[in-house]
Specification:
The chain is an alpha+beta fold and 65 residues long. It is built from one helix and six strands.
């Protein structure tokens, strides 16, 4: 399948005190490869809408951010 012409990449992090924690995901098709959440925009959705959709589709994360 060809890539969508507009792509988003989401890298999750949170600050805990003076430190940061990052979330990276192991690819199911390449066990030694890690990445953030990536995907293409669908239709006329904005980058923020696409990022929220990909967060939910790939990691089950939803909310108002």
């Amino acid at each position: 399948m060809a890539r969508q012409p507009k792509q988003i990449h989401v890298y999750l992090y949170r600050k805990r005190g003076d430190d940061y924690e990052y979330a990276v995901f192991r690819r199911a098709d390449m066990e030694d490869c890690f990445q953030g959440i990536c995907g293409g925009l669908e239709g006329s959705e904005s980058y923020l809408e696409g990022a929220k959709r990909e967060l939910f589709e790939e990691a089950g994360i939803e909310g108002d951010y």
